[in-house]
Design brief:
The structure is a homodimer.
Chain A lengths: L1 H6 L9 H11 L3 E3 L6 E3 L1 H20 L3 E2 L5 E3 H4 L3 H7 L4 E6 L2 E9 L4 H11 L8 E10 L13 E11 L2 H22 L5 E4 L11 E8 L5 E9 L3 H5 L3 E3 L5 E3 L1 E8 L1 H10 L16 E5 L5 H16 L4 E3 L7 H10 L4 E5 L1 H6 L1 E6 L6 E4 L3 H26 L1 E3 L3 H10 L3 E6 L3 H11 L2 E6 L17 E6 L3
Parallel strand pairs in A: 3-7, 15-16, 15-17, 20-21
Antiparallel strand pairs in A: 1-2, 4-6, 5-6, 7-8, 8-14, 9-10, 9-22, 10-11, 11-14, 12-13, 17-18, 18-19, 21-23, 22-23
Helix pairs in contact in A: 3-7
């Protein structure tokens, strides 16, 4: 099966993006279909990428005073209904538990699509005084949203994420929390995953159900479609009022808390595949690759010399990098080269009998360029430098693509043409009327992705010609 | 609320063990009840203990070649039914999803009570050849088992665990895996959680539903009841046959794989509370305590001297230990002392103006003994030594208790008396007939907890007088 998996040629990324994506996810063994509708299995190599995202974020969240906790999977329907917009947004996607063993439940339970409706009631128990604030919790868990059409990682009935839920004394504190988190997400996307993003807020039509404001990061994928890469919701006092979460302030007044919620999910792995891969398969940025360096010994008559040298090299480099020594004897070196190209390892080192004799290895970069011979003495410096170069190269490629696929339009006709021809982000002025947004949606099939932060609007609304109150980036989207 | 929580006196552990347990779990803020029947919220301090268990185990699992993966939460009923004993064991406890949004499902889905029934079908896709074996995967996830009576951590409708699922070429390999995992669990229990355990196997009546053999660790709690602290199941080829998981061996024969599964859960936190706590609250073994050292500055007029010294101390000790500086100004030092005793921090350091002047601190051990003055110069050595002592002391206390509550019985009457009076483990010879086991269960209310590994039986069955084939430890159990 493994042999078949790599022997078959991948569809070309430029010709059939969608099929290329699915085949890379499957053949690189990131995920697989299961007998459960819309639910995937995340295989160890894919899960290792998720663990990399988790451990980086978890460290940053803890550094900024957040703590992990856990809340129930099953939420009584009456709780989900307490915030009106929230239930309206999520009810069509809820998987309902109606029976426990043989017993029919008196109230059905939602498998959580998100946890505001169970966390806020707990905050009502835990928060009494301004001294108890802020509450800065998050949970790493699974959620279910019943989806009609699903795609590996990008849209699945169940996915993994963290959901942050914080409670604050003032509106300003809650808003600052949203921006702090958006900054951490942007750092993850750009510095670790090497995916450039536009940061900003959503127009009201695209907000999280029940939020007063939604901060978002939007990335442009190589097919010209945008993908939401992380959101941070300013919930105002909407949920505090729905669940009656109050505190006694220092002025002896009872007040509602201000709350936020925020998340990134395993969907990021889908973005990672799309953003960087090529016709040979996956390309992983070094900072998130499960293995930054793969060592392939050239086996044969000289195993007794080559294998110990390869092991020593793996051990040496293993002190600084995540290293995989692929010493399986059931596969040829050539087969392994293809395998690790498919699986996107940033740097590959080959070591054969002649290399051992000359105290050198042959290094290949997954991003291309000629193979090069590298002396084993001091190799950790060379490898470190090359990994940094690959990391930057992937980010810069993404940024160049994004910039060359971002245009501005002054009329709806220009906007329609840009969406069709340039295939990317189109920036327009907007008067903030819903009707003008609706017109653009109908004409283009694109949606408003993001209103950039801290950028003053000027000029006119692209639809009605009234003074623009905001800039908006439109794109077709996942 | 915080004030009330610590002001009220705890029930005495020796007088009302059950209520003491619940109050400690709640007031130390490990967990709380939720509006969801039988489901608890795990609060940050309780979750930090779980993260300690996770990170220790995850490292050991990875060192021994295991990788993390993820499988669907929802399992179609037809899959759960494929292994007959398995479904019989779990069906009464299953929460069933019957609707997705407004749509009634054609087949209902079980919220996973355990994942053999979805993982084995995936193994059938992934395993083709002996070269693909062993498969050594585990998943950190949540499971639901619909329980009638629930208790925080010990028995909850939803709990967190990891489930390991491995596939092997031979029976011997699978059995060796079970023993390897049991050894890792025993190391966790004894070295990290400071809870002594008996290691062995379960009699057939107590096996995991569908297992050919269940390895177990059993700990004795201070109320004389045993608790299962970790299990590792040798599944033989039962699940391989039910789900048709075969591989082509090197002799060109198609064979069924041999599989195992194993788990420990958040239930361990319940054992930890019971095993070590006292009338003042929780006592945490240093190696698992979220904070090994809590520093309480004695605030007042001299804050300008004391606070910087306390911060410097926290920073210094923070390089070697998990340290919490409790510098909240809304609470008195005395209140904080009670708080951190309730929450079980192993070592507390007080630092006041005189201590700053004398370059010293006052150290208290949570396990008792007089306060002692410690010089700040070289304090990390003293603290390290004391933490090690506390770790050993807790384990030795537990072992002394267990040993003094373990007896042997030669007749059923002796066994009945021992269960009633000594309240602990009673070791008896057994002929391996189910009827003899049933007799003991009826007479004592105790169950057979564990058959010790590698200990040859001698003498007679305690019930029928036939030659004993095994030793069995009986106890009442959680």
């Amino acid at each position: 099966m493994v042999q078949e998996r790599t022997a078959a040629v991948l569809p070309k990324k430029s010709e059939n993006f969608s099929e290329w994506y699915t085949q890379v996810a499957l053949r690189a063994e990131l995920a697989d279909y299961t007998p459960v509708r819309g639910s995937m299995a995340i295989r160890p190599y894919g899960y290792a990428i998720w663990e990399g995202i988790q451990s980086w974020l978890d460290r940053r969240f803890k550094e900024t005073g957040h703590m992990n906790a856990y809340f129930p999977l099953l939420i009584p329907e009456s709780f989900l209904k307490k915030e009106a917009e929230h239930v309206e947004g999520f009810a069509p996607q809820v998987a309902w538990v109606t029976h426990g063993g043989d017993e029919e439940l008196s109230e059905r339970l939602a498998v959580r699509p998100t946890s505001e409706a169970i966390i806020l009631p707990m905050y009502a128990k835990w928060i009494q005084s301004y001294r108890d604030l802020p509450v800065l919790l998050l949970a790493w868990n699974n959620v279910v949203r019943w989806e009609k059409a699903t795609r590996l990682f990008l849209r699945t009935a169940e996915f993994l994420w963290h959901e942050g839920h914080t409670a604050h004394r003032t509106m300003e504190d809650a808003d600052a929390e949203c921006r702090l988190i958006l900054g951490i997400y942007q750092e993850l996307l750009e510095q670790i995953l090497a995916i450039p993003v536009l940061a900003g807020i959503k127009p009201p039509s695209e907000r999280f159900a029940g939020a007063a404001n939604t901060y978002t990061l939007e990335a442009l994928m190589p097919d010209g479609q945008a993908i939401q890469a992380g959101t941070s919701h300013f919930l105002g006092q909407n949920f505090a009022k729905a669940f009656n979460v109050k505190f006694l302030d220092s002025d002896n007044q009872e007040k509602y808390i201000w709350s936020t919620s925020w998340a990134v999910s395993t969907r990021l792995i889908g973005s990672l595949i799309m953003a960087h891969g090529d016709d040979k398969g996956l390309i992983l940025p070094p900072r998130i690759a499960p293995y930054e360096v793969v060592i392939v010994p050239i086996l044969g008559r000289d195993d007794a010399k080559v294998l110990p040298a390869a092991k020593e090299l793996a051990q040496h480099l293993g002190r600084r990098f995540r290293v995989k020594l692929d010493d399986r004897d059931a596969y040829t070196a050539g087969w392994k080269f293809n395998e690790w190209e498919l699986r996107g390892a940033p740097v590959r080192l080959e070591i054969g009998p002649r290399d051992v004799a000359n105290k050198q290895v042959v290094l290949s970069r997954r991003t291309g360029g000629a193979k090069q011979t590298v002396r084993i003495d001091g190799i950790e410096v060379t490898v470190g430098k090359i990994l940094d170069e690959i990391q930057s190269e992937l980010f810069e490629r993404g940024r160049a693509y994004r910039d060359s696929h971002t245009t501005q339009a002054a009329t709806v006709d220009e906007l329609v043409r840009a969406i069709e021809q340039v295939q990317g982000f189109v920036k327009v002025g907007w008067c903030e009327m819903q009707s003008c947004e609706d017109t653009i949606r109908e004409r283009t099939g694109a949606s408003p992705r993001v209103i950039p932060l801290d950028e003053k609007a000027s000029g006119k609304c692209v639809v009605c010609g009234m003074p623009a109150k905001a800039w908006v980036y439109y794109a077709r989207a996942y």
